[in-house]
Amino acid sequence: QVQLVESGGGLVQPGGSLRLSCAASGSILTIYTMAWHRQAPGKQRELVADISPRGSTNFADSVRGRFTISRDNGKKAVYLQMNSLKPEDTAIYYCYADLQSRPYGAPVGYWGQGTQVTVSS
């Protein structure tokens, strides 16, 4: 059984920084794309950033230049460094991974349980 567990959320003042972590565990053969999404109250879930196994990254326009995504393939982990945080970054942040858990199975997407990030003075 595969699990993604996030950590690192919390309350931070505008202009501050937070680092989110997500670790995958369970029966995992290969992890492909890993990503962070977020969902603010009353809004749809949106992609924040993703990263390929080789480290190619994509960012939402709203966070480019402020957020950095990285991964440690050996630890099956993905990280999101968030700097210059704004109140509009307030949301539940979800970790996502496309991974293969069976030798002949197709990759399947898994979600973490989410971690709250609140940016407020």
Task: Summarize the entry for a quick read.
The chain is mainly β and 121 residues long. The protein contains no helices and eleven strands. 0% of the residues lie in helices and 55% in strands.
Jot down its keywords.
seven-stranded mixed beta sheet, 11 strands, about 120 residues, mainly beta, four-stranded antiparallel beta sheet
Q: Would you write up a description of this structure?
A:
This protein is an all-beta fold and 121 residues long. The protein has no helices and 11 strands. Strands 2, 4, 5, 6, 9, 10 and 11 form a 7-stranded mixed sheet that branches. It has a 4-stranded antiparallel sheet with strand order 1-3-8-7, with no helix packed on it. The relative contact order is 0.32.
Question: Biggest β-sheet: count, sense, barrel?
Answer: 7 strands, mixed
Gap from first CA to last CA: 40 Å
Overall residue-averaged pLDDT value: 96
Number of helices: 0
Low-confidence stretches: none
Query: How much helix, percentage-wise, in residues?
Result: under 10%
Q: What is the rounded Rg?
A: 14 Å
> What percent of residues are in strands?
over 45%
Topology:
Elements: E1 3-7, E2 10-12, E3 18-25, E4 30-39, E5 46-51, E6 57-59, E7 67-72, E8 77-82, E9 91-100, E10 108-111, E11 115-119
